Amino acid sequence: MAEHQRAWERQSNDRQWKQPEGDDPVTLYRMMKTSVERFSDQPLFGYIPSEGMARSHLSYGEFADLVDAVASGMVSRGVVAGDRIALIVDNSVEWAATALAANAVGGLYTAMYTQQRGKEWAYILGDSTPSMVVVANTTVLDKLVEAMPDDASAWPANGVVLLGEEEANELPPEGIEVLNWSAFVQDGRAADALGEPADDPMALATLIYTSGTTGNPKGVMLTNWNILSNILSVQSVFPIYIGDKSASFLPWAHVFGSTVDLFYMIRSGVHVNLISDLTRIADELTEIKPAVMCAVPRVWNRFYDRVNAQLDSSGVKRFLSGKARKHASKRIAKAGVVCDAVAPTTFWDKRFDKIIWGKVRDRFGGNLRFAISGASALSPDVAQFIQMVGISCFEGYGLSETSPMVSANGWMGYGESRLNSVGKVLNGIEVTIDTSAWDDPDRPDEGEIIVTGPNVMQGYWNKPDETEKVIIEPGTFRTGDLGKLSKDGYLTITGRVKSQFKLENGKYVSPAPLEENLKLDSVIEQAALDGRNRRYTFLIVHPNMEALRKELNAVGIPTPGDDAAVCADPAVSEWLLNRVSNHAKGDKNWKGYEIPRDLILDHDEWTTENGLMTPTMKVKLRNLLTRHEGAIEALD
Q1: pLDDT tens per residue across span 125-170
Q2: Could you read off the pLDDT of 286-341 as tens digits, one per residue?
Q3: Which CATH number among 3.30.530.20, 3.40.50.12780, 3.40.190.10, 3.40.50.720 corresponds to the domain 28-292?
Q4: Alpha carbon 356 to chain centroid distance?
């Protein structure tokens, strides 16, 4: 096999996207089978079976055999086309096999997060009415049994499949069978062969439940063609090659994770390596040595903070890193590109790349060539730093309702990316800006982003009224995001329609990009900016307590007591507010009226467990404001 060989030909820019044509796969399962035909003996998944064990690998062919066994097992237990199969499982071979097996029989997979609350699982199961549910372990099953009704009719009729070999502790109501995964697969291998797999590209492939920041989650209905059109539109446009290793840790229950980090990688002939323990991600990256990685801005922000802290930790490091930055900036400026990595050229440039940036790349295993950032805005400062390190990192934009990708940097070709944008709209998709949804006279070119294309969802499951609010006509979707489109086709995201707020002076504030900007500060872990119908904005911050204590001690502010005591100290709030204000005043991203006049410190991390974050890491603002209601009322 030739080095750096792409799996497929790039799609023509002028092809039609209403339906599959030619050799296009028509379902996710059939897409997987075409990859198996090409890469049968090559490794598809690398995974650690259990803590302390070495990484195991499963080839494309072996995985396809597993999928067929799971599909046969489903059919033998009564699963039919149109059935939903629920998953409460972390990323795993079993997750992928279940999703693709459901697709093979014409069913839909509905994935949830293992860290969600039991009542959220119960709601999604009650709404989607699956015929079978696969759960990660006995802990998940115990929590599910506690949350679900005692009536067997509320449970999936075809039973529960339990990963691992442990016997169940708490059991569902009588009549609902619990079967271990190995027994389920064994039964599938002994059952009749699957036969002709489903082949309808317009049939539903999944229900992906949205985060539910302001209410119950909604099931986004995506067809095979919704997802496949998204994958095919960017096949062989990024520097991803057959046999590349990826490091996978984005949850596949999220549309970015499933479409890009799983199905797109299978289409591309990639060796997908699962991160088994996020607390040991650096060790696993060193072992995997990935060439490809998908991540969210929070990962890149932490990387940015930690590397810069280390580079500033001594005079020698500051001197050497300063030289490295100078040479890298000069080289990149000469190339005239953003986002794309630019190889060092001169003697000293190569020297500093080896002793500084090469060691930084070693944190990712030393081979990382290509990365995608999605789910929220990536700071231009962080993007430029990643480029200096020598990694091509492209930001994209999309939603669950758009399968997900709408636009991205990088896919247009080398040197065509643009900072402060999410790139150009993908082939087959059209974006328009509805300026009537936004009446800020200072920003007349902004408005709600409207997406039309084959990637747009069919609607929300069981929610026709909610569907009607966002689907203008079949294939055209109101995103709820604010943005603007340049004359030459680059899209910029500026906020959310619902999260924007108006101050007493009539000025509008879009908090999301400002919050991301603040989180570049090493002492700010989480941030929420608000001020609707008030004279000024205020800021709620959960700090990085270790970094905060270090900074406070350096300026002579004592930090006795626990985290709660430090965050309750008015001197600490005043110091951090001044730090935020000074940063904002010197940053062109901030307008004067957006700079917060008050700050509330929260010593507790915002998590899914305490109801302050969604599983996709979005702040539940209503809950956060309620938590700090007294402190907010006390503000001027």
Answers
A1: 999 999 999 999 999 999 999 999 999 999 999 999 999 889 999 9
A2: 999 999 999 888 788 888 888 888 888 888 888 898 888 999 999 999 999 999 99
A3: 3.40.50.12780
A4: 29
CA distances from 261 to 247, 274, 374, 585 (A): 9, 10, 11, 38
Residue 510 half-sphere exposure toward CB, CA atoms < 13 A: 20
What is the Cα–Cα distance from 139 to 418, expressed in whole angstroms?
A: 46
The pLDDT tens digits of the residues spanning 360-388 come to: 899 889 999 989 988 777 778 888 889 99
* Cα 606 from chain centroid (whole Å): 18
The 3-state secondary structure of 409-469 reads: CCCCCCCCCCCCCCCEECCCCEEEEEHHHCCCCCCCCCEEEEEECCCCCCEECCCHHHHHH
Reported in sequence order, the residue ranges of 244-321 that DSSP labels E, i.e. its strands, are 245-248, 271-274, 292-295
| DSSP SS3 for 578 | helix
pTM > 0.70: yes or no: yes
Which two structure tokens, joined as six digits, stand for 527? 């941030």
Beta bridge partners of 541: 527, 601
Domain over 503-633 is classified CATH 3.10.129.10: no
- Encoded tokens for 29: 């399962």
Which of 413, 403, 125, 470 has its CA nearest to residue 257? 403
All structural domains of the chain with their residue ranges? 28-292, 296-496, 503-633
Alpha helices in 353-419 (DSSP H): 358-361, 380-389
Question: What are the E-state strand segments in 30-176?
Answer: 43-47, 56-59, 84-88, 108-112, 132-135, 160-162
Residue the block writes with tokens 């323990």:
277
The burial of 618, by beta-carbon neighbours within 10 Å (0-12 exposed, 13-18 middle, 19 or more buried), is given as: middle
* Half-sphere exposure for 280 (CA within 13 Å, toward CB): 11
Instruction: Count the neighbouring beta carbons within 10 Å of the beta carbon of residue 42.
Output: 18
Pick the CATH number of 296-496 from 3.30.450.40, 3.40.50.12780, 2.40.10.340, 3.40.50.970: 3.40.50.12780
Rounded CA-CA distance 228/188 in Å is: 27
- H or E stretch covering 493: strand 491-496
Average pLDDT over residues 597-604: 92
How far is Cα 472 from Cα 331, in angstroms, rounded to an integer? 47
**Which DSSP letter does residue 577 get?**
H
592 to each of 253, 260, 313, 526, 596, how far by Cα in Å? 40, 39, 33, 22, 9
List the beta bridge partners of residue 162.
135, 180
- Say if CB 295 and CB 373 are below 8 A apart: yes
For residue 267, give the 3-state DSSP assignment.
Answer: helix
Please check whether residue 528 is in contact with residue 509, taking contact to mean a CB–CB distance below 8 angstroms: no
One-letter amino acid for residue 126 of the chain: G
Q: Which long-range contacts (CB under 8 A, 24 or more apart) does 349-355 make?
A: 352/320, 352/323, 352/324, 352/327, 352/328, 353/324, 353/327, 353/328, 353/390, 355/320, 355/324
In SS3 terms, 130-170 reads as CCEEEECCHHHHHHHHHHCCCCHHHCCCCCEEECCCCCCCC
CA dihedral 254, 257, 263, 266 (to 10 degrees): -150
Residue with tokens 């890469």: 39
Find how far residue 325's CA is from the centre of its chain. 30
